[in-house]
Predict the structure of Delta-aminolevulinic acid dehydratase.
Amino acid sequence: MIRPRRNRKSPAVRALVRENSISASDFIYPLFVHDKDVDEAIDSMPGCTRWSIDGLVKEAGEAYALGVPAVVLFPAIAENLKTPQAEESHNDDGLVPRTIKALKAAYPGLCVITDVALDPYNSDGHDGIVVKNGDDLEILNDETVEVLCQQALSHARAGADMVSPSDMMDGRVEAIRETLDLEGFQNVSIMAYTAKYASAFYGPFRGALESAPKAGDKKTYQMDPANSREAIRETLLDEEEGADILMVKPAGPYLDIIAKMRETTTLPVAAYQVSGEYLMIKSASQDGWLDEKAIVLESLTGIKRAGADLILTYFAKDAASWLK
Ligand code: PBG
């Protein structure tokens, strides 16, 4: 009789035949920062914090010491700095450039990644520049890409190792690559949000940054959750435009997309376990309904098994300590 259970009979045999594993070095830790001296709990994401720059440096250092190689920064920008053209997004003295400098001064070896998109800076709460035609909103593509290039450049000047456009404008990877190269930043990498879906799972994140769109939705630039061939199209484009790493977002409900992207490209594939995925696990574990540690490690293993090489997760630090 053929007995598959023989390969499961002991921890040692299971370890020998295990096909996938997760480790701290797979993780990118998303961190929120604001321009205040105090650290503030985020109501919409229990367990997450809007850090002061000092607080963020300390938190990043702890994760780094546990083996997490990278952080990605998300700024909560004061309402009075938000404008229709999002000028603050490329202010060299802005919150993100100052945070990058503080991080690189404290931990030169930590990979510092920045989000490139206008939503935290733009008074309309969209990832691009908005024009209003009556009740209709249009998100301008090419005008936005010019601002994104300036934003990426200001992050590079401050010392970012990698920029990560999350805006889903067409042609932005190529434009950012050209801008960085022209200005001498050939070594700054681009991790592209390649297949970023128009997802309700981003709700808690928008609460954290108070960056929800003031009107309309993001469906004219983020992808339709019903589509998968379109993710292949975006994969081929971002590859051709010069991205170094491609991303699928969200992760858990889009494992099929991760698997398809893995088969399509030779580039590293990243997946973002987003705020709604985090919140579902967190809230179900708070009352002991789910076993948080077991669920987190299983969900991350599932994302890895689907084909992700890297995982952006709010659990990065906890998971790294559990894996020790
Ligand atoms: C914005 C951005 C979003 C997230 C990362 N970058 C929100 C959005 O597109 O509305 C979401 C992350 C999360 O939900 O954890 N450019």
